[in-house]
UniProtKB/TrEMBL annotation:
The organism's place on the tree of life at top rank: Eukaryota
InterPro entries named in the record: ET-Flavoprotein_bsu_CS, ETF_a/b_N, ETF_b, Rossmann-like_a/b/a_fold
UniProt keywords, alphabetically: Electron transport, Transport
Primary residence: mitochondrion
Signal peptide as annotated in the record: none
Biological classification of the source: Eukaryota, Metazoa, Chordata, Craniata, Vertebrata
Cell compartment(s), UniProt: Mitochondrion matrix
Protein name: Electron transfer flavoprotein subunit beta
Example of a GO MF term: electron transfer activity
Organism: Melospiza melodia
Pfam families noted in UniProt: ETF (PF01012)
Oligomer and partners: Heterodimer composed of ETFA and ETFB. Identified in a complex that contains ETFA, ETFB and ETFRF1. Interacts with ACADM.
Length: 132
């Protein structure tokens, strides 16, 4: 799960950057020779896509049944060594970063809310503030 506010941006952006086909919200995936069939839920029912490989797929909750880690296995995992591999060992070309962070700052604090007695009072305050 990505940290993009569950807006389904990460898979689509990655597919666009790689210029690969994409199948989002996959609820069923079936490999074929040279491609993949992706079944996804849409407003009108189910949609089936046939994509060539390589492709970027994002998963729907119905794709798999999650396995939950037990406490003893979590404790065992903490003791296992973590192997760190340089990107060059994996065949990933090194190069200048594509992004440059110019500045990081917290947003300004939000002003507190205010209760109003009636709808007319609310509309008056909104008009005064130039919101409507």
């Amino acid at each position: 799960q990505a940290i993009d506010d569950d807006c389904n941006q990460t898979g689509q952006l990655l597919a666009a950057m790689l210029d690969w086909p994409q199948g989002t919200f996959a609820s069923r995936v079936q490999l074929e020779s040279g491609g993949v069939l992706v079944e996804r839920e849409v407003d009108g029912g189910l949609e089936t896509l046939r994509l060539r490989l390589p492709a970027v797929l994002t998963a729907d909750l119905r794709l798999n049944e999650p396995r939950y880690a037990t406490l003893p296995n979590i404790m065992k995992a903490k003791k296992k060594p973590l192997e760190v591999l340089p990107a060059a060992d994996l065949g990933v070309p090194a190069g200048p970063p594509r992004l440059k962070v110019l500045q990081v700052q917290e947003p300004p604090p939000r002003a507190g809310g205010e209760k109003v007695e009636s709808v007319e009072s609310l509309l008056g305050k909104l008009r005064h503030a130039g919101r409507i």
